[in-house]
Amino acid sequence: MSEVTRILNAVQQGDPKAAEELIPLVYEEIRKLAAHKMANEAPGQTLQPTALVHAAWLRLVGHDEPARFQNRAYFFGAAAEAMRRILIERARRKKAGPLKLRKARSLPRSHRPRAQARSSAVTSCWKE
């Protein structure tokens, strides 16, 4: 069993320090994955690979309930999927433009779509 798999098992068991141990072991590989994903994006992106890694990390381990990963392959697959979804959501928001935002703001609060709570770290990486 690899060190990453051992730590992932500890995260699954609810060990709060396990996620801190995991970061140095997987960060460079996840950052390379993010850079690869960003290379396939349209030119003029303001999102940097580091910000994409941080947003994906929060999606993977930033929940109250422990994440479930069988091994490092599943973990990196989940990281890649999280990054893909972040890029898709960002592209959809960008494509919607300010008109859609103005329409949503003109609706009564009871009819507005609910925004998911995000930490300030994730929110700041979305600003353009």
User: What is the average of the pLDDT values?
Assistant: 77
- H-E order: HHHHH
Give the CA-based shape. globular
Oligomer: single chain
- How much helicity do the residues have? 55-70%
**What is the count of DSSP helices, taking H or I runs of 4+ residues?**
5
Residue fraction in strands: under 5%
Major sheet characteristics: none
What is the domain total for the residues? 1
In total, how many beta strands?
Answer: 0
Structural class: mainly alpha
Query: What Rg, in angstroms, do the CA atoms define?
Result: 17 Å
Extract low-pLDDT stretches: 115-128
N- to C-terminal distance: 42 Å
SSE order and pairing:
Elements: H1 3-12, H2 18-39, H3 49-61, H4 72-106, H5 120-126
Helix pairs in contact: 1-2, 2-3, 2-4, 3-4
Give your account of this protein's structure:
With 128 residues, the chain is an all-alpha fold. It has one domain. It contains 5 helices and no strands. It has helices at 3-12, 18-39, 49-61, 72-106, 120-126. Helix 1 packs across helix 2 (18-39) and helix 2 crosses helix 3 (49-61). It is globular, with a radius of gyration of 17 Å. Mean pLDDT is 77; it is low at 115-128.
